Amino acid sequence: LTEVFIESNPRLFETNSELIDIIVGADMFGQMNFISIIDHYVFLKGKFYKIPYNDFDIAESDWLTVKEKLFLQKFANNKIQFFEFEANVRPLVVEILNSAKIRRRSHAIPVYLKNYGTNELLCYPIFGEREISDQMSRMLAFKNVAFYMEDEIKLLDQHGREIKNKPKKLPTFYQLSGQYGKARFDQFLTSEIPRKRQKKYVKVLILSKPLKEGNFFITFSQNIFIFQLDWETRVCPTNMFLIYIFAKDPLQSDIENEIGLDHESIILSISFERKITEPPI
Known about the structure:
- This protein is of the alpha+beta class.
- The chain has three domains: 13-36 and 120-131 and 195-276, Guanine Nucleotide Dissociation Inhibitor, domain 2 (2-Layer Sandwich), CATH 3.30.519; 39-115, no CATH class; 148-193, no CATH class.
- The chain contains eight helices and 13 strands.
- Strands 4-3-10-11-12-9-13 form a seven-stranded mixed sheet, covered by helices on one side.
- 21% of the residues are buried.
């Protein structure tokens, strides 16, 4: 591989999400390859803090005291309430966990508890050197439009009964019949409310040396998220690394210095703006 595959709006998926359950249940992993984004860091007050998502990570954490490890483990395993956990750890610990967002509008601690116990926090689809048609099919599949139709759309009422007199607009419930079975959807096929397109500021870096080893996700601030993909994802040449920086507001010119990036390792730097309806995850 000698080329770089840069997406203007790359997507990461939570491994415990409903989408992954559907893919596993449909035995589609043979057609869809993913690579794990295991490590999640919070960049706070000039330092990186690795967020522990299982008991082993808590035991190995280098920023938690022995007492804090014990109470975080109890809290994450639903053995104590938040107020008891908060009373027995430093304010910094609560601040770090409150900053551990993987979405801009998400509430960090509830999402943290939901993801606790997973060995793979996020995953990224590997495109590699596949045929363009294959890549397009996978992207369309994520949008629920790559479905081979044999029959007409069957409209259902809220009790699952077929509607004989078809209305002009599709109802909330509908069913598609195709070559590989049937799929039922409990949502509007098209929304009457247009989704607001938000401007995002993006910086893409190609590095000869990683910021940190492996593939990881960084919560830099409430409005800035960073993730790194290594060359094994087949998005960049061997022994190189690809970093995406997403921001709601214009990025600072010295963000590379702020995260401690070695400028000599930067092979390529690209910045652009675009309007998107969905965040990277």
